[in-house]
Every structure is written in structure tokens, then in C-alpha cells.
User: What shape does this take?
Amino acid sequence: MVLELSESALGVALAVAGALAFAGQFLCVRLGVNDGDVTDAVLVVLLCNVVLVGLPMLVLYPPPYTGLYTPTSLASFAAAGLVGMFVARLLMFKSTDEIGASLTSPIVASNVLFATVFAVVLLEERLTLIHLLGIVLVVVGLAVVSWETAATTARERSFRETGITLLLPLGAAVCIGLEPIFVSVGLAEGTAILPGLVAMAGAATIGFVGYQLWTGSLRRIPIRERATFWYVGAGVSTTIAFVAYFAALEIAPVVVVMPLLQLTPLFVVVLSALFLPMRLEHVSWRVGVAAVIVVLGASFVSISG
Assistant: This one.
């Protein structure tokens, strides 16, 4: 007997898979940067994204591939890649190295708050009561995470240093909040999701390599090191997450997909407690509560959006 899933059920499954894959990215990066370097992590993940979405595009679409884009869509997806895949990922991975995955992911999940602000300001969307409730919950969750971060790092860092550290995941959240603004412009031009992802990953990779050349930090990636293995795992996880996320949006309503995608912080907390050693990740009950609050707030914002 063959089980048939409805489109809504398949959309739910894809959204949950995307959330799990995004959580897997955090864990792989946390394990990798323990012995490796953050910049290596960003470059390996980006290269994995380019290869894993680029090869299917070459197979599924006939040349010339320039016909898949308009000048506006190419510029929009490139901007989304630079902001979301390059800058946000660099800040997010650095934060994961500094304060851990379970503290970083709830703060990064506040990207829906910033996305809402950008949509209201730039796209002239209306702010509803549910939006406001969700924003309040996200802010409360961030306050708990910030307090927990200060408490756990008080012996190692000053109050000022802790505040500066928290700017890393907040900066990543702002960048990820900007990303869908650019993506929506690219999709409105008629460019399909897969070519859009290729443009995003390609622009992010070129931008990051250019940044490394400019700063003189570009170096050979140690292929056989254990850290590189975890970075490849993170690259595979993020590619699966993006594909599952966009595929879910293709077949299921946004109000179903987006709240489920916000489960990432909860998955990170649970998986960190189960699989990461205590020396790498200390998951307290306050972090779990904060993750739940942020997930609820982000879900409210997503539903009302």
C-alpha cells in the first residue's frame, strides 16, 4: 500500500525538514570551529552551496543560462546572497564560536522581527496586533538570552565585551531579515527558485573570496582536517534547508510554512543537549524557555505576515 501525502502535509514535512537542516548547520559549525577557523567554515559552506545547487540547475535548465535572469532579478538575488549568505553567515558562525549554538540560534531567529520592520518601512505593509504581540515575545526571548549570555560569560568577559558579542547574532538577524526583501523582488521578475539560489550562492562566494583577498586572509583550506568534515556537513545541511524551505513555500501556504521554520532554535537546543559535549555547549533551562518564547513570537509574526 502506497501512502499519498496531501500538498499541505508535504509542505509541513518539508518545512520541518528545513528547520531540522538549519539546526544541523549550527551543530556542525559548532563542532567544526572548536578546532578550526570561522572563515574556513564560511568558505566551505558557500562552496558546498554553489556545487549542490549549481549542478542540478545545469541539468534541469538548458543553456544559455543568462536567459534565466533579468538584470533586476540577477541584481536582487546577488544582493540577497551578499547580505544573507555572506555577511549574515560570517556573523552567525562567529557568534556560534563565541557563545555557542543554543544561545546564537534564538537571537538569529529574531530575523522575522527585522523582516517585519523592513516590510512595513520599505514595502508599506501594515502592522497588525498579532505582529505586535509576536514582536513583544521575540524581544522578551532576546532579553532572556542576553541575560543568560551575560551570566555564562561574566567570568570571561566584561559587560561591554558581552554586549559587543551579542551584536554578532543580532547583526546576522538584521541581514537575514533583509534577505527576503531582495528575494521577493527577484522572484517577482519571473526567475525560478533554483537559478535564484545559484545566483545567491555564487554572489556570496565571490563576495567572500574578494573580502578575504582584500584583507589578506585567503588561505588554502585544510582538506583532511576533521573541522573541514564538519564544515562540509554544514554546507550540505544549509543546502537541504534552503531547498526544503523554498519547496515548502511552493506547495503550502506561508502561514503553515513560516511558523514551522521557526522551530530551528528549539531543535538546536534539543540537539545540543543530546549530542554536543558539555565543554562545547551548556544548555540551561533558561535557554530552553527563551527558545520557546522566541519561537512563539516568530510564529505570530510569520502567521500575521
Q: What stands out?
A: The chain has a mean pLDDT of 80. The chain has one domain: 11-304. Residues 11-304 form one domain. The radius of gyration is 19 Å.
